[in-house]
What we know:
Elements: E1 8-12, E2 18-23, H1 31-42, E3 47-53, E4 58-62, H2 63-79, E5 87-91, H3 97-108, E6 111-114, H4 121-131, E7 135-138, H5 144-155, E8 160-163, E9 172-173, H6 174-179, E10 195-201, E11 209-214, H7 217-228, E12 236-239, H8 246-251, H9 254-258, E13 262-267, H10 273-283, E14 287-289, H11 292-301, E15 311-314, H12 321-331, E16 335-340, E17 346-349, E18 363-364, E19 370-373, E20 386-390, E21 404-405, H13 409-415, E22 421-429, E23 435-440, E24 445-447, E25 450-452, H14 454-461, E26 467-477, E27 481-490, H15 498-509, E28 520-524, H16 537-541
Parallel strand pairs: 3-13, 5-6, 5-7, 7-8, 8-9, 12-13, 12-14, 14-15, 15-16, 27-28
Antiparallel strand pairs: 1-2, 3-4, 10-11, 11-21, 16-17, 17-18, 19-20, 20-22, 22-23, 24-25, 26-27
Amino acid sequence: MSIYKKFCQEVLDEFGALKNIELDYPENFNFGYDVVDAIADQDPEKRALVWCDINNEEHIFSFSDIKRLSNQAANVFRKAGLQRGDRVMVVLKRHYEYWIVAVALHKLGITMIPVTHMLTVDDYVYRLKCSQVKGIVCTLQNDASGKIQEARKQAEVSCRLWCVQGEWEGFENLTEEMEKEDCVLSRQHTLVTDPMLLYFTSGTTGYPKGVIHDFSYPLAHIVTAKYWQQAEDGGLHFTVAETGWAKASWGKIYGQWLVGSAVMVYDFDNFDPRQLTGIINHYKVTSFCAPPTVYRYLVRKGIPSMPSLRHASTAGEMLAPEVFRLFTQQTGIPLCEGYGQTETTLLMANFKGQEPVEGSLGRVSPFYHIELRDKGGNPVPVGEIGEIVIVPPENGRQTGIFTGYLHKEEQYEYVWRGGVYHTGDSAWQDENGLYWFHGRFDDIIKTGGFRVGPYEVENVLMEHPGVVECGVVGIPDSLRGQAIKAVVVLSKKYSPSRHLEKEMKDFCNSQLAEYKWVRKIEFVKELPKTISGKIRKVELRG
């Protein structure tokens, strides 16, 4: 029996589709002890993680391996003085140490802050000042350790520093320290209401917000893994995501291990569709999830036969209908779209037992009560566009929804205005009960599967001496879904030219993580604004 069944009761229809699910968990539920260690004790050799990299290095970890290694890592952190309630930043790309460190931190009740290695020094400074971490565990690749050292100085933050698989001045070698530690760890006291994860997510009018999830969060991903991604007990699930993003929590650890599926990890930097399909075939991956950008590349290059693959899903940005059709034609597998946010788990999807419909988000997850409402807070009729809002249960607690924004109580109260959670996204429902995504109520840009807040890019661009005003928007792009475009009002000393456009791109992009790069610049005499002086970005996109 898959261990997830200990924590929920499901009701299915005659087609195997989920009609209802109720969670039941103790007040001290902890994914590290109650899932990872429990599986290790019950079935020590059960496969948990299959890892390989571009250099053909390979490691396969059982659940007993993860239990032992996470205990050793936890003992390292305990000796360093870290304890329940502390925060630790984790910058480990797709290294297998991420899974070990994550489980170790969970066992100690320490809040984990996963971030991408693509951050700049300024990005790190902002996050360090906000979160006041007590420790950082990072990769030695991509100069992450050097950036972190500089950011720590600028932020004036004192914390322990660890790196993996190597040495770096000022950092402790976690790999070596773990080898010296006991592989036994007594259960530490934690509560399900403790903060477990903190993700920084981009906003439209300010710097990234720190999204906090508690220890019940993994259980909400049972639906994600079993009924959308269709990960199987004894199977091998492969989600394309770097561990710095919430998509990794959706597809690379929690729900998958709960339903008994091993997780496939390919540690790479530059995306190559042939490599991904080679991994799928070599390791016999059974279920696959990736952003539409990956599928666009795959169908362009031609998809080889993948006999082991039984299910494919996608989320993160709009999926073009021709990509849906071509992938299905070439593989015989329909793409199942899904929708959710960093603040939530899966809200809508083309679920198991339901025929996927091209371009549709599918149906609402039985785990949530979701409505479409107008700006006045009233439900909209079928066929009309409304904001996607989540109505909490009568007891007021909805597992899977974030518990707060770090140091931003007013913003948290605002998204919960009227007693419901406002996603800021809009959709409409057809007469068959299917939902169709319409767009964002705000201006978040989704490019290549990444979320980018315009404010972050605008802030850098405004530092160029030739920029008086600017507005940054996402525009349609055949490869990325959206590309980042800047609309710029120049100072009187500058004149529009291709040379100036290149100069501004270089100026801006040299200070930004690659996924935030400006791809196009348009020079205008003035920006369209509302009567209150706000830039009308809907016109810039047009």
